[in-house]
Amino acid sequence: MTTTLRTVQPTLAETAQLMTGGGRGVLAADESIATMSSRLEAEGIPAGAATRRDYRELLLTADGLSDFVSGFILADETFGQELSDGRPFPEACRELGILPGIKVDTGTSLLPGQGGALITEGLDRLGARLASYAERGAAFAKWRAVIDITTITEYAMHVNAQALARYAALCHQNGIVPVVEPEVLCGGDHDLATCARVSRLALSSVFEELAVAGVDLSGIVLKPNFVTPGLDAPAASAHVVATATLEVLLGAVPATVPGIAFLSGGHPTADVCAFLSELNALPERPWNVTFSFGRALVSDALRAWAGDPANVTAAQRRLLDNCREAADALR
Ligand code: 13P
User: What are phi and psi of 257, to 5 degrees?
Assistant: First the structure.
């Protein structure tokens, strides 16, 4: 008798659940080549493909990262690179018990006729690109729409939401969980009510377009901003931020969405962890709530590393401390 071995693929809903449940969150290490290079240079580290690779390897191989992190978002460059032991990054992620994700948008450009409002690019050939990423092991993808309170227009909000919905539908067609990220930027001196109003409009527009596009919400992860005053305005307490954030989310995000994973947006680590902790203490959350931070997890590690192999262990310790703090905020 012959036995056929079959790999059972998790469903999109199961993957979304794995990413956002179980007291873990997602680490965003998907800065574009330009952004990563400028962050390296700001720390006095010469930027190049090799240093970007070394830095991402340092992050991924921090011992015990998978205790806190369920998913690791890679940039296209890193997705195709190998660790120093020769394993491709997506394969190493899986071996470490972490789902590999891929940022698939290609950045923003000015939307003609809309003042300074931005549109996120990357829909051309996206289906073929997603098929290739899926073939090479990607479990999830990320697309970020950028909403600047000072320049956003109704039309810009709408076309960004439509692009997110087209991206999400294409992800599902290719067996990939879309992380849907409409980011209302926190730079500026606006008050919390303004952020709440714009965040509500952005989220409502996104869920309207997802519905029109026929996207099954049980297989997506939402990645929103916390509802806060602008970074140049007087700060609000973590409790006020959490309450305002939950109110906006409850008004716009259907309960069928399995998980919400917040971006950090430039807020300090301690602040976003406090927002998350307060949010988790509030009742009535129909979704998993977790983190998908970039800078709040990795900035300390980058500074500690400074491009010197002798500092790798110290840098990994800083990363793990921040990841532990974020994961503790989920308990
Ligand atoms: P930050 O947490 O640094 O905002 O990055 C998260 C992210 O993935 C932005 O797209």
Answer: -70, 125
Q: Poorest-confidence range of 7-16, 168-177, 226-235?
A: 7-16
Question: Treating both helix axes as pointing N-terminal to C-terminal, what angle do 192-212 and 238-252 enclose, rounded to 10 degrees?
Answer: 30
Q: Does the C-beta of 68 come closer than 6 Å to ligand 1?
A: no
| pTM across the whole model | 0.97
Question: What torsion do the CA atoms of 77, 175, 8, 101 make, to the nearest 10 degrees?
Answer: 30
Amino acid at 314: A
pLDDT of amino acid 6:
58
Nearest-10 crossing angle of helices 295-305, 269-281: 150
Q: What is the pLDDT of residues 27-37, one digit of tens each?
A: 999 999 999 99
CA distance 319 to 62: 8
Nearest to 210 by CA among 145, 175, 143, 162: 162
Token pair belonging to 267 = 């807020």
Mean pLDDT of 52-75: 98
Strand order in the sheet with 221-222: 25-29, 69-74, 99-103, 140-147, 177-184, 221-222, 259-262, 288-291
| Mutation choice for ligand 1 from 263, 322, 323, CB with most ligand atoms inside 8 A | 263
List, in sequence order, every beta strand (DSSP E) within 81-234: 99-103, 108-110, 118-120, 140-147, 177-184, 221-222
Distance between CA atoms of 240 and 274, rounded to whole angstroms?
11
223 among known catalytic residues: yes
Check 103, 183, 209, 223 and give the catalytic one.
223
Pocket test for ligand 1, best of 185, 292, 300, 325 (most atoms within 8 A of CB): 292
Cβ(53)–Cβ(87) under 8 Å?
Answer: no
- Give the span between the Cα atoms of 296 and 138, in whole angstroms: 24
Taking the CA atoms of the chain, what radius of gyration do you get in angstroms? 19
* DSSP for residue 10: P
